[in-house]
Each structure stands twice: as structure tokens, then as C-alpha cells.
């Protein structure tokens, strides 16, 4: 998807709905096959008791897989909280600096687009 198409898709989401219910959480012990990732799932990758990364498809429309560190000793790193309904909250926000330029928060499983 080219940058213009990704920008248009993101703009429609920002101005059309403002949020989108999408994400639930799955915890695994190894990196998932990139082809097996669902559009609605954040995969948390653990090694024993250590939570290492999370991976999910970029919701801005580019289709790329985003891999974020959960290791507080690395920068940048993110934190994830999951409520009793299985809805993830991720912080800080995610800015996809490559193809689509998407910038968003995930709060209680919903995508909240940043207007910047």
C-alpha cells in the first residue's frame, strides 16, 4: 500500500469513527509466524517468566507487523495492561515511523488515533 492510500485510510478512520474495537491478547512462548497474525490480536511473547515483546498488525492500513519491546531495560519500551475482559491498554502511544506514519493509542482494546 502506498503512502497516499495509507494516509487516506488513516484519515477516514480518524474522522469517521474516532476509535475502533479491535484488539484482544494472546500470550505465546515464541515468536508467531508473521503470516498467522490476526488483525484483532496483540500477541505477547514470553520466555519463561520474562515478558519480552508484543507483536500485532499495524491498524493504520499498511499491513506491516509491529514488534514492540516490553523490556524496561531497553529504549524505547512499552507497557501493556489487560483488564478482566481481556482488553489491552498499551502505553505510551505507538508511532509507526516507516511506511504509513500511523500514530495511535490502544485503550481497552480500542484504537484511538492521534491527530498530529
Strand-helix topology:
Blueprint: H1 3-16, E1 19-21, E2 24-28, E3 41-47, E4 50-57, E5 65-69, E6 79-82, E7 88-95, E8 103-107, E9 110-113
Parallel strand pairs: 2-3
Antiparallel strand pairs: 1-9, 3-4, 4-5, 6-7, 7-8, 8-9
Walk me through what this model shows.
The protein has one helix at 3-16, and strands spanning 19-21, 24-28, 41-47, 50-57, 65-69, 79-82, 88-95, 103-107, 110-113. The chain has 116 residues and is mainly β. A hairpin with a 2-residue loop joins strand 8 and strand 9 (110-113). The chain has a 5-stranded antiparallel beta sheet with strand order 1-9-8-7-6. The longest helix has 14 residues, at 3-16. The chain has 1 helix and 9 strands. It is 12% helix and 42% strand. The radius of gyration is 14 Å and the shape is globular. The protein has one domain.
Largest sheet: 5 strands, antiparallel
What is the first-to-last residue Cα distance?
21 Å
What structural category arises from helix and sheet content?
mainly beta
| Share of helix, binned | 10-25%
SS strand fraction? 35-45%
Radius of gyration: 14 Å
Q: Point out poorly predicted stretches.
A: 13-20
Write down the domain tally: 1
Strands of the widest sheet, in order across it, are 1-9-8-7-6
Which overall shape is indicated by the principal axes computed on the Cα atoms? globular
Number of continuous helical runs: 1
Q: Care to count the β-strands?
A: 9
- Mean model confidence by pLDDT: 82
List the quaternary state of the chains.
single chain
**What letter string, H or E per element, gives the SSE order?**
HEEEEEEEEE
Amino acid at each position: 500500500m502506498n503512502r497516499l492510500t495509507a494516509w487516506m485510510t488513516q484519515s477516514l478512520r480518524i474522522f469517521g469513527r474516532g476509535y475502533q474495537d479491535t484488539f484482544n491478547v494472546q500470550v505465546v512462548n515464541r515468536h508467531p509466524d508473521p503470516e498467522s497474525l490476526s488483525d484483532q490480536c496483540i500477541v505477547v511473547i514470553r520466555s519463561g517468566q520474562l515478558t519480552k515483546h508484543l507483536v500485532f498488525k499495524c491498524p493504520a492500513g499498511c499491513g506491516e507487523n509491529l514488534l514492540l519491546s516490553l523490556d524496561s531495560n531497553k529504549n524505547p519500551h512499552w507497557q501493556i495492561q489487560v483488564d478482566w475482559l481481556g482488553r489491552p491498554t498499551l502505553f505510551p502511544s505507538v508511532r509507526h515511523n516507516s511506511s504509513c506514519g500511523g500514530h495511535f493509542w490502544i485503550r481497552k482494546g480500542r484504537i484511538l488515533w492521534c491527530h498530529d
